[in-house]
Amino acid sequence: MSGTDLVHQGHGEPRPPHHPNYFLLGFVGALGVLAAWLLGEALAAVSTVLVYILVALFLAVGLNPLIETLRRQLRMPRWASILTVCLLLIALVTAFVWMMMPPLADQVTTFVTNLPSTIDALQETRFFQNVDERFDVLERAEEAVVDPQVGQQVFGGLVGVGQVVFNSLFAIFSVLVLTLFFMASLPGIMDMTYRLVPRSRRAGVRRIGDEIVQRIGDFIAGQLLVAAIGGVVAFLYLWAAGSAYALTLAVIVAVTALIPLIGTTLGSLVATLAMFTHGPVIGVVTLVFFLVYQQIESYVISPRVMRQAVDVHPSANITAALVGGALMGLVGALLAIPTVAALTIVLKKVVFPRLERR
To answer: What is the DSSP secondary structure assignment for residue 198, as one 8-state letter?
Structure first.
């Protein structure tokens, strides 16, 4: 047998060209699209629960430095440190409610008591009489009161408000329970997360992870410091202005200041509206005072505190808060700044060194 025959025998007959199975490709592609759609629907259905988990995990990580400080300084077991922090938070919430409820109840009672006389005085004014002659305000108001559809709408609105209140209380309770769970199991969760990294890189990842946790705790501490400064300044001014509810309004200013970007503005508006009840002059003065203080806080106090806490440029903080608020509302604005701080740590410790070695 010649060499040419062996070559032909080894290669055999030429194979026909391979044609892809378009039906199989389309079927697999359709299954992939269906799986992606089902996954998106599932994530949308549990998005609220995922937000609860994310907020609780953020709070647990943020409170962890305080727990570790109590554990090291006072030599307390971790469960005792967690219990101390929880009792402290409960005490702060109780004090806030205790300061808020009496003046709020007094003002509501005063408003309801004076409502008939206020309406009578309004009807006697020349302005209201002219408006009533042109638009029949009183007649339309009486028709609206006796209209059954209006009653149904009011009842539906009350039911909606009750549902919102119930959902809010349920959300707060869920977040608190999840936060307590995450605080107790945070070391185990972090150790399990680090074990997913190869052993050769585990030490470096642990250092970066611990630094990120510390930065989140520093962010919460910095935000609390900014809020405390705002509350103290508001109390001193309102007390000097003679407000009977200086402490309550100051607490409102401090609590709302925990909200990035718009928090101080909301609290200042509440305090300003309350001071307008004492007269237009003191109301305008209060408005000017809080406008000036808001500029000082935005450009002096908050940038310095947050720069030391999260080591992120103020422009990046503002941009992150705006983007987070647009994506996830208030929760996104709260989580955006520590997220940017974590990304900054990864860039400085991992990405930039690798790029420099190339």
So the answer is: -
Contact assessment for residue 59 and residue 175, using Cβ atoms and an 8 Å cutoff = yes
Q: Which tokens is 27 given?
A: 């079927």
Query: What value, to the nearest 5°, has the Cα angle with vertex 221 and ends 351 and 192?
Result: 50
| 324-355: burial string, b at 16+ Cβ within 10 Å, e else | bbeebeebbbbbbbbbbbbebbeeeeeeeeee
The neighbour count for residue 206, using CB atoms within 10 Å, is 15
Integer CA distances (angstroms), 61 to 77, 331, 341, in order? 18, 15, 14
pLDDT of residue 321: 74
Exposed/middle/buried for 257, CB within 10 Å: 0-12, 13-18, 19+?
A: buried
- The model's pTM is 0.65
DSSP 218: H
Q: What is the pLDDT of residue 288?
A: 92
Domain ranges of the chain: 48-108+167-196, 216-358
Smallest CA-to-CA distance from 298 within 264, 251, 272 is with: 264
- Separation of CA 347 from chain center: 25
